[in-house]
Amino acid sequence: MNRLISIELQKIWKNKASRILTLTYFILLSFIALIASIKFDIGPFKFHLAEMGIFNFPFIWHFNTYVAAWLKFFLAIVIVSMMANEYSYGTLKQNLIDGLSKKEFILSKFLTVALFALCSTVFVFVMSLLLGLSFSSYTQFDIIFMDLDYLLAFFVKLTGFFSFCLFLGILVKRSAFALGFLLVWSIIEAIIRGFLTFKVFPNSNTADNIVQFLPLESMSNLIVNPAPRLAVVKTIGNQIGIDTTMDYSVHYSAILIVLVWTFLFVYFSYKLLKNRDL
Question: Domain ranges in the chain?
Answer without folding.
Answer: 2-275
